[in-house]
Amino acid sequence: MTRTKKYLLLFNETFGDFKKLILKLTDSLLLLMSLLGVICMIYFFGFDIQAYIKANLEIFFQFLASIFLVLLTIQLFLKRKRKIQAILFDFLLISLLGLMVLEKYTFPEWFKENLSILSFLQKNVVIYLITIVIFIIEVSKRSLFIFLSKINPAVLFIISFMFIIITGTGLLLLPNATTNGISFIDSLFTSTSAVCVTGLASVDTQYAFTALGKGIILMLIQLGGLGVMTFTSFFGLFFSGNDSFRNNMFIKDMINNDTLADIFKNLLKILVFTLVIELAGAIIIYFNIDRTFFPDEAANLRYSIFHSISAFCNAGFSTLSQGLYDIRFRFNYPVHLTVAFLIILGGIGFPILLNYYKLAKHYLHNFFRKLKSKSYLHKPNIININTRIVIYTTLILLFFGTVAFFFTEYNNTLKEHSLGGKIVEAFFLSVTPRTAGFNTVDYGAILPSTILLTIFLMWVGASPGSTGGGIKTSSFAIAILNVFSIAKGKNRIEVSRKEIADDSVRKAFATILLSLLAIGVSILLVSSFEKGEKTLAIAFECFSAFGTVGLSNNLTPTLSPESKWVLVFTMFLGRVGTLTIFVAFIRKVNSLRYKYPEENIIIN
User: Per residue in 219-272, pLDDT tens?
Assistant: First the structure.
């Protein structure tokens, strides 16, 4: 090797090390500056501060825009091996920041007054949004390094929910988030209820929280419904490209993906499905609102967006004290049906939506082949046994619930509706206990038989991989199928010429047992704290909390702080799953290399 080549090789190595150092430094500075920006925003919006402090903070955000512009430009030139989408996104941020920084000094006055895209943004809205986006991106990229650690994925899942709950509690305690302030336990209760997409409220959401507080609740609902790890995994993979085998294995289990292929694409599909469905729901609700109900169009829009997101995430939160039972919406059947189908789509589970999306792609492909006169048409076997069980169980429960509620409440809470209205409301009553929690009737007036039926539906809950809770439709279906298999003398469960794996059966029964234990302990504790209340009403609240439903017999606001703590833990257990907690903290045995002699136990 010649001396020139040696010097060139040495230069390349030195430049490579220097480049890595610069990239690490810019990443750290981006995280630090975005963190400072987020803290300043919390102070800016969350507290009543004097005018000169606000002016100084706005100057700081202008300075922040300049720093972001420099750092992102450096990264754009140094980070060559990245996805084209990430490069284009960085270029967009740089363009916006460049306009903000340079518009003040370089553009002519007529442009500033008439054509500047920033002329309507008087309060630094762009830099606020960019700061939040950069903060999310940097945190997401670092979360992938956490995935690479030896921490149990179940522990990470639990910690992520705990972190969001604690953060939400702090944000809801901000002075400007509430009208007259709330206690720590009510803030914690509301944050847990929002993150766990439950909907139980210890205070009146309509009057206790300001627009900022309701916005925080909506953010917590969205993060809790999809899972904070879904967001961080998507942004982390998008911007860092760190799609190692361990990361993919973790995310595969998290989103219930069948294979390691197309992990990022499926994450993107989940986010797109969510955005499209919530947007469509908000549009339908918006156009079915009487314009005389709210003071302006902005209020109509806020109501539509809030309830669409809350419905799809199966949260059950409403900006009205009486929810959909409010006299302004009590007979608005199009809104009720829209909310019901949003609940069903959110509770059916993303694996099911992805499954049918794949089937639709195949049928579309066959359609185009047919147009081209192709003789061979592929008949895909895409709808797996999990999808069949979930769909059939969901349809059976919806039909059974609609018929039962129609007859039990016909002359009670449904008495004020027409025949068509009774059918719609009976259908809604069968949908909302499936972890949604919206009410179109007064649950304080429903019959005991209806309460028991609602408790059953709350306990079953939504489907696996969804935004809802409960023991899940698949666990309930497996338990029922197992009963029939035993009655027929079979030693396995067979459905549609497929055999259910023993591991799934064991998990289903473990989930059922642990749910009953958790709910039983919750009822016992609340009953000991609320000695004057009826056991059935307490059981209703506890089943609602564990199933992350949010329906209430108007008991939650009157509970003591001790009972609220019990429901907080119950909601958390219902959202993350009791079995998940056991998996997280009990050491797993990799394999059993021995087998003891079998012996039967007398069961019946």
Answer: 899 888 776 656 555 555 555 555 554 555 555 555 555 555 566 677 777 888
136 C-beta neighbours (distance < 10 Å), count: 18
For tokens 């729901």, name the residue: 281
- Helix or strand (DSSP H, E) at 499: strand 498-499
Q: Per-residue pLDDT tens for 327-344?
A: 888 888 999 999 999 999
Q: How many domains does the chain fold into?
A: 1
The span from the CA of 504 to the CA of 231, in Å, is 28
Residue of 392, 385, 379, 386 whose CA lies nearest to 350: 386
Alpha helices in 313-465 (DSSP H): 333-348, 350-371, 385-408, 419-431, 448-460
In a domain, 20, yes or no: yes
In the numeric block, the tokens 């009486």 are attached to 322
In a domain, 320, yes or no: no
pLDDT in tens, 482-540: 888 888 888 888 887 788 888 888 888 888 999 999 999 999 999 998 887 788 889 99
Amino acid at 426: A
Domain region containing 54: 1-147
pTM of the model: 0.85
Distance between CA 100 and CA 96 in Å, rounded? Answer: 6
First to last CA, the chain: 84
